[in-house]
Amino acid sequence: MRTRLNRFLQDLESADRLDQIQGLTTQLRDALEIDHVVYHWVSVDGEQYGFGTYDPAWAQRYQDQDYIRIDPVVLGCFQRFHPVDWKSLDWTSKAVRAFRADSIAHGVGNQGFSIPIRGPNGQFALLTLSHTCSDASWEAFMFSYQRDLIVIAHYLNAKALTLQKGRRPDTIRPLSPREIDALSFLAMGYSRSQAADLLGISEHTLRAYIESARHKLGALNTVHAVARAIGEGLIIVGGAAREAAGGWPGQNQARGVASS
Fold first, then answer.
1. HTH luxR-type domain spans which residues (predicted)?
2. Dist CA 97 CA 87 (whole Å)
């Protein structure tokens, strides 16, 4: 297997087109002798690229059902900088359990490991591996190859960045003051109900502001929207910054919530 992994790295190094990543994910899957390998990349302008070995029917269903909004793997990796074994994620909600059952029925596998990679100016990528096997077999596999996979993930991402470096990202549309306020309170750790109370609006209206901001930022979900807004300097999270700005609406109430 080491020989096959070394061959994969050699072929990765010689790749000169972005579409070759599809073949490389298949090659990596075969080298590791697992069910699937997927590389998912979100560019700085919110454009997505997906390369991998999932059944096209599952990829289409994932998109049709908008599973990205509840997928614990995507949500968990947006909030982490270290690799994530799927068993460590929260799969307890009814919607998430149904999603997991659907994914297994489509051959995704009951085991998984995802490596988040962050590139320049907000670029985000995931290298995901999945397989159908026992916990013991998966733990043995990860013990043997986890370090190799982390190195491979970063080399693969670096190659993708190199191959798309000629693209010019679209200009991000400016956020309205209310959209900035909504994302700022969420970035501070307040729940949606708390943020709505502090802004003096309904949760329904708050959701509208968040969705509008997410669309402008080209974000996959709220967590990604907050991360992009911070990365682009559209919101600043920190007490000193808020004081300098004269405070947000409901600042005194926010202090009360934070201390309760």
1. 168-233
2. 13
Structural domain range at position 128: 2-163
| Burial tier of 144 (Cβ tally within 10 Å: 0-12, 13-18, 19+) | exposed
Query: Do residue 185 and residue 132 come from a single domain?
Result: no
Q: What digits encode the pLDDT tens for the residues 178-232?
A: 999 999 998 888 889 999 999 999 999 999 999 988 888 877 678 778 877 877 7
Beta-carbon contacts of 22 under 8 Å, excluding residues fewer than 6 positions away, are 51, 52
Residues 127-146: tens digit of each pLDDT:
999 999 999 999 999 999 99
**Residue the block writes with tokens 């013991």:** 136
Asked whether residue 143 falls in the same domain as residue 221, the answer is: no
End-to-end CA distance of the chain: 55
What's 135's domain CATH number? 3.30.450.80
Residue 205's SS3 state is: helix
